[in-house]
């Protein structure tokens, strides 16, 4: 069943991740300077993880709070949602991400520049700039993210009270 309400929940959830995640990077860069200090890594991790956890708790009961096409596609494949609804989820996830990015660019035109172009460092620096290593790392991490989601939020026997925190922690 196609549900625009679910699509809107996906747009809002994705907006939150794409807004608050990079916002934590912008704040870390302004507070701790460029580079990845322990403090910056903690701030960035908490920003991303909290955004996911809060959105899972806020919208999980509406759309499942997939927030990511890499989660929606396996949900379609396993028939947890229909193809038409899944396509709507993905379109609205993209819309939410674009609006969040535009909002960050508008709010932080100067300090955001370095962050938006990766000047703060990150996995690319740790992997020596290797595109293949980055791709493999993304595949592995996405596999575990989807596994955690299926085993906590989707599995019938999993305790439902903690899945938002677990998924946010995985991110």
Structure, described:
The protein has 171 residues and is mainly alpha-helical. It has a domain at 4-121: Glycerol uptake facilitator protein (Up-down Bundle). It has helices at residues 4-32, 38-59, 69-77, 83-107, 111-116, 123-126, 131-154, 163-170. Helix 3 packs antiparallel against helix 4. The longest helix is centred in the N-terminal third of the chain and has 29 residues, at 4-32. The chain is globular.
Element-by-element helix/strand order: HHHHHHHH
- Contiguous low-pLDDT stretches (5 residues minimum) are none
Q: Characterize the main sheet.
A: none
CATH architecture heading of one domain: Up-down Bundle
CATH topology annotation of one domain: Glycerol uptake facilitator protein
According to CATH, the homologous superfamily of one domain is Glycerol uptake facilitator protein
> How many helices?
8
* Anisotropy-based shape: globular
CATH class of one domain: Mainly Alpha
């Amino acid at each position: 069943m196609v549900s625009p309400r679910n699509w809107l929940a996906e747009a809002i959830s994705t907006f939150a991740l794409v807004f608050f995640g990079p916002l934590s990077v912008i704040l870390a860069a302004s507070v701790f300077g460029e580079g990845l200090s322990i403090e910056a890594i903690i701030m960035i991790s908490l920003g991303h993880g909290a955004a996911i956890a809060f959105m899972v708790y806020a919208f999980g009961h509406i759309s499942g709070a997939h927030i990511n096409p890499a989660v929606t596609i396996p949900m379609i494949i396993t028939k947890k949602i229909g193809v038409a609804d899944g396509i709507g989820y993905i379109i609205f996830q993209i819309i939410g991400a674009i609006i969040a990015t535009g909002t960050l660019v508008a709010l932080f035109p100067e300090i955001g520049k370095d962050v938006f172009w990766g000047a703060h460092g990150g996995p690319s620096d740790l992997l020596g700039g290797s595109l293949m290593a980055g791709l493999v790392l993304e595949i592995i991490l996405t596999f575990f993210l989807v596994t955690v989601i299926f085993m906590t939020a989707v599995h019938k026997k999993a305790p439902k009270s903690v899945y938002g925190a677990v998924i946010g922690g995985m991110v």
